Amino acid sequence: MLTLDAVEVWRGPSLVLSDVSLRVEAGEIVALLGANGAGKTSTLLTVSGHLRPRSGRIRLDIDGKAHDLASLPPPEIVALGVAHCPEGRQIFGGMTVLENLRLGAYLRRDGAVRADLDRMMSLFPVLAERRGGLAGRLSGGEQMMLAIARALMSRPRLLLLDEPSLGLAPQLVEQIFDVIAEIRGAGTTVLLVEQNAAMALDVADRAYVLETGEVQLSGDAHELAGDPRVREAYLGLAPEGTAGP
Amino acid sequence: MSDAYILQQLINGLVLGSLYALIAVGFTMIYGIVRLINFAHGDILMVGAFSAFAILSVFGFPLWSAIVAVLTLGAILAMMIDLVAFRPQRAAPQVNGFITSLGVSILIQNLAILLLSGQPRPFNLPGWMRGNVHVPGVRVTVLDVTIVLITLAILIALMLFVQRTRLGAAMRATAENPLAASLMGIRINRAIATAFGVGGALAAVAGVFWAGRAGQIEPLMGFVPGLKAFVAAVIGGVGSLPGAVLGGFLLGFAEVLFVGLLPPAYGAYRDAFVFGLLILVLLVLPNGLLGRPAEERA
Description:
The complex is a heterodimer of chains A (245) and B (298).
Chain A: E1 2-11, E2 14-24, E3 29-34, H1 40-47, E4 53-62, E5 65-68, H2 74-79, E6 82-85, H3 97-104, H4 113-123, H5 125-129, H6 140-152, E7 158-162, H7 170-185, E8 189-193, H8 197-203, E9 206-211, E10 214-220, H9 221-226, H10 228-233
Parallel strand pairs in A: 3-8, 3-9, 6-7, 7-8
Antiparallel strand pairs in A: 1-2, 1-4, 4-5, 9-10
Chain B: H1 3-34, H2 41-58, H3 63-86, H4 94-116, E1 121-122, H5 127-130, E2 132-133, E3 140-141, H6 142-164, H7 166-176, H8 178-183, H9 188-214, E4 216-217, H10 223-236, H11 241-261, H12 270-284
């Protein structure tokens, strides 16, 4: 569905992605792991058209048609079915929950928006309770739910999800990961950026590990979870440890 | 002091406040969406007045056509300014845009002086506009009533546009968080151009009204109303649309009452009074009357 081939990206004077190649197949959850500043968020921003690659290719295959995302403006990328749920939630705090959700469906002209609003309300009951309230008054976890629901309102084929667990209580993190599994179950492909490598590898099919703008490791999520380098660097476990589940 | 005198001052305040509100709304929309204090905003008012002059006095078209044409021209001019002067430096620090707007303002003023001469010209609306509406004891012209009614209609239409339409929602979303708005598929530059266009249209039509009351036009006429509308926007809470309307009317009333209630010798200090009022309000309410503190904005 999504293929990045030797993508190089600069942010002003600094090189943020030096050589990123990765692949996301339809129906997969693919995790993107790595330390702060490794280029995870930049990768997502490049896919959604907010950063432009200096070289390399980004291809989106949808319904048998290939699209070159590197040359499309962000609204057209959204229209193709790529939703980006950004780091730090970025909800519209001065607008109501309902207005936030409607903005998620901004480019849609079909008549099913109302039905999708109801679907989001039942998927996230807390949003139904607070639908008329200002989004800025929601708790951190509720704002995360809203940010995900808002992204889903565009009916994406591919969801780019950036740090959904950041700053949330463990119980909420579990809830969020349940939701991610549900989203995939409903047929949406997910590219997931996470600091919480253990949770991410648990829910993902495959994973890539970024380091200073390059892919260092990649492979099956379960195999990576057992890889000593990953265990040491990202899971906080001893390299040869046999403890744990 | 008679009741009629006070009523007269209130009416004057309402008319002046309408004009300030019309201009301030554009200031606040543009600030809200690109965090830019656009000092060229007042000069669009001047261009509106000169355009109306050409349409009415030179070509002799009817007033309604002048209003429609001026709304359109103001919108186009403001969007052109955005496209040429501000859009290329969208990512630059705020102060760059501010200085650019000063440059655009000086450019427009000097172009007007060069092409149209700096001499004031008489600006006469059709005679019926200058006639009095019959209210005992006070003097109200048809123009005054027109100004207040058209301003109210425009402001209501603007609120509905911003609150109820898809483009209005796109503008609010962009004002609040441009990155998130772009992630929704909103064309940021189009939303910004809309704010400039609406603001420019309102400033230009305010220019026609302003010129109608002053009875003359000249290339620097936009400066003082522009500055005062900026004060009105800040008093109301810059970035807040209802705030700009409230600030505009408050400033109109305050200025008229200051001039009307104090001995005539103090009249010359009205501008000093306006800016004194600004300082006072900001000392007590740093975000203006209806503004939100910066940290609440996402």
